[in-house]
């Protein structure tokens, strides 16, 4: 059984996607996956599903959802699998979902990010770009498809999205180091549009434009970043952006100054 959470939640059994029949059952599974191989208590599941106002029979409902999930994850109906044996384990304090390292796509993603980070630090830029691109290819949308708003799934989703952002930064950094400046310009313009408060992408775009002999455009990006940061946060650009602006302003127009990769 494999689980995909880097997008809408999916359960895949031997290549077949198994449908989860009820939204609250999906919430239970998402919570167990977010805490894979760790016990989740019934009160935690209750808070995750219903918030601060659970129904009177919340505990009974959770037992039903767990029973339905067991049948789903053992790949059988109640008729041919009355006592399903699957990855959900009952403990005295709650429930635990057993997950192998390669069964959950976000764990594969995490390992690839760690490997890509090490390759980037070692200045193995081609390998880093390939590894980090493979990590990003695992994503199909927002983590868990923005399922529910409980603290466990929300916190785990936010962490995954931050790791995804770091992965994009590092993959772009590797591509800049490989000299793919012109190819990156369009992507980076899209990134500053999507992440308008993220200074790293402005800095990377300035570097890509400057290395492509587009000094005026690089300065315009700095001005855009400064305007957005002042209007949205009341802040001035950070040291990295200010230093990039200085380099672009004083650079001899007859020579293209190489900006060192930030690794």
TrEMBL record:
<keyword id="KW-0902">Two-component regulatory system</keyword>
<keyword id="KW-0805">Transcription regulation</keyword>
<protein>
    <submittedName>
        <fullName>AfsR/SARP family transcriptional regulator</fullName>
    </submittedName>
</protein>
<dbReference type="InterPro" id="IPR036388">
    <property type="entry name" value="WH-like_DNA-bd_sf"/>
</dbReference>
<feature type="domain" description="OmpR/PhoB-type">
    <location>
        <begin position="1"/>
        <end position="99"/>
    </location>
</feature>
<keyword id="KW-0238">DNA-binding</keyword>
<dbReference type="InterPro" id="IPR001867">
    <property type="entry name" value="OmpR/PhoB-type_DNA-bd"/>
</dbReference>
<keyword id="KW-0804">Transcription</keyword>
<dbReference type="Pfam" id="PF00486">
    <property type="entry name" value="Trans_reg_C"/>
</dbReference>
<dbReference type="InterPro" id="IPR016032">
    <property type="entry name" value="Sig_transdc_resp-reg_C-effctor"/>
</dbReference>
<feature type="DNA-binding region" description="OmpR/PhoB-type">
    <location>
        <begin position="1"/>
        <end position="99"/>
    </location>
</feature>
<dbReference type="InterPro" id="IPR005158">
    <property type="entry name" value="BTAD"/>
</dbReference>
<comment type="similarity">
    <text>Belongs to the AfsR/DnrI/RedD regulatory family.</text>
</comment>
<dbReference type="Pfam" id="PF03704">
    <property type="entry name" value="BTAD"/>
</dbReference>
<dbReference type="InterPro" id="IPR051677">
    <property type="entry name" value="AfsR-DnrI-RedD_regulator"/>
</dbReference>
<dbReference type="InterPro" id="IPR011990">
    <property type="entry name" value="TPR-like_helical_dom_sf"/>
</dbReference>
């Amino acid at each position: 059984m494999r689980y995909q959470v880097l997008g809408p939640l999916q359960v895949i059994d031997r290549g077949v996607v198994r449908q989860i029949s009820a939204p609250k059952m999906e919430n239970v599974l998402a919570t167990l996956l977010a805490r894979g191989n760790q016990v989740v208590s019934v009160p935690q599941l209750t808070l995750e599903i219903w918030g601060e106002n659970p129904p009177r029979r919340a505990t009974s409902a959770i037992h039903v959802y767990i029973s339905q999930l067991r049948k789903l994850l053992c790949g059988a109906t109640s008729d041919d699998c009355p006592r399903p044996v699957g990855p959900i384990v009952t403990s005295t304090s709650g429930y635990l979902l057993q997950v192998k390292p390669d069964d959950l796509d976000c764990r594969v993603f995490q390992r690839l990010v760690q490997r890509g980070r090490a390759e980037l630090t070692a200045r193995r830029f081609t390998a880093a770009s390939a590894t980090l691109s493979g990590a990003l290819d695992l994503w199909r949308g927002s983590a868990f498809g923005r399922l529910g708003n409980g603290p466990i799934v929300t916190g785990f989703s936010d962490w995954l999205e931050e790791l995804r952002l770091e992965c994009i930064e590092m993959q772009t950094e590797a591509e800049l180091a490989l000299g793919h400046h012109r190819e990156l310009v369009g992507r980076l313009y899209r990134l500053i549009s999507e992440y308008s408060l993220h200074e790293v992408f402005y800095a990377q775009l300035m570097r890509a434009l400057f290395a492509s002999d587009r000094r005026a455009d690089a300065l315009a990006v700095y001005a855009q970043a400064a305007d957005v940061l002042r209007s949205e946060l009341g802040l001035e650009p950070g040291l990295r952006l200010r230093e990039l602006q200085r380099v672009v302003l004083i650079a001899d127009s007859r020579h293209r100054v190489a900006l060192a990769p930030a690794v």
